[in-house]
Amino acid sequence: MNDLIQQTAKYLVAARHVVALTGAGISVESGIPPFRGEGGLWEKYDPMEFAHINSFMKNPEKVWKIFMGDMKKVLLAAKPNDAHLGLARLEQLGILKTVITQNVDGLHQMAGNTDVIEFHGNFAWLRCLQCDKRFKTVEVDLSEAPPKCTCGGIFRPECVFFGEMIPPIALTRSQEESSQCDVMLVVGTSALVQPAAFMPVLAQQSGATVIEINPEPTPLTGRISKFLVAGKAGQIMNEILSEVNSLIQSQKQ
Ligand code: APR
User: Fold this and answer.
1) Residue 188 C-alpha to ligand 1 middle, in angstroms?
2) Bridge partner residues of 154 (DSSP)
3) Contact 47, 214 (CB under 8 A)
């Protein structure tokens, strides 16, 4: 394992342009459950019933009451963990340029990353289905389900539901960053949901080295990624950062 940590640090320090693609796994250590696998949300909720735009539009009350009811507490209380803080530190060191995240929790920005592409939108903003006004989620009374706008319209979160398009700017920028990077860190994603899961493929096809951090292998492992550093993102990122720091120190000498 330590050899893979050292190799990762070497790639990062030698890199010209590093991009990270992250998924729900990076926020598990912040108390937010993943979608798939053990304890995953989709084990408890049918995603087509609770996370598809048609089911939301058909019955926003049900989705707000049941699904959002559970999620809002977790999302609004979550704090960045060592993995988020590690990526922010890599940006401060001038190594990491951009984070492409599938997460809607805003934890990368909270940790200090300044260029975060929210591929699946975010939960930090609500939009009125009637008057299209936007409000910060924290400024809206979420005790009512569905929460209502001052115009009486129902709010929807600015997350991307199944059945919806990826925000065009997020998609274009992610494709650009993926094809320009020379190292891509893929952290905490099952790499099952398109088009996000195509970004590491685009990076590898453009000549980049793709490195995964995940306790489990994914469809990228052994095919697209050069190697998988198997373990929890928080712990792994701490080890990588200390290797990066000692490499940078030794280069100064
Ligand atoms: N550190 C790193 N990775 C972890 C950790 C951890 N502590 N815990 C779990 N994982 C890994 C799991 O092994 C799994 O591969 O994180 C991954 C989580 O996968 P998913 O739950 O499928 O999440 P994600 O890949 O982000 O899902 C993609 O699907 O449901 C939609 O819109 C939703 O953005 C989401 C998209």
Assistant:
1) 5
2) 148
3) no
Cβ(190) – ligand 1 distance below 6 Å: yes
- Answer whether residue 65 shows pLDDT above 90: no
**Cα(103) to centroid of ligand 1, in Å?**
9
Confidence of residue 1 (pLDDT cuts 50, 70, 90): low
Which of the listed residues 102, 161, 212, 240 should we mutate to test ligand 1's pocket, taking the one with most ligand atoms within 8 A of CB? 102
List b or e across 61-94, with b for residues whose CB sees 16 or more CB atoms inside 10 angstroms.
ebbbebbbeebbeebeebebbbbbbbbbbbbeee
Catalytic residues: 120
Of the listed ranges 5-14, 36-45, 91-100, 178-187, the one predicted with least confidence: 36-45
* pLDDT digit string, tens, across residues 66-75: 777 777 778 8
Å from CA of 160 to ligand 1 middle: 16
Taking a C-beta distance cutoff of 8 angstroms, is the pair 87, 113 a contact?
Answer: yes
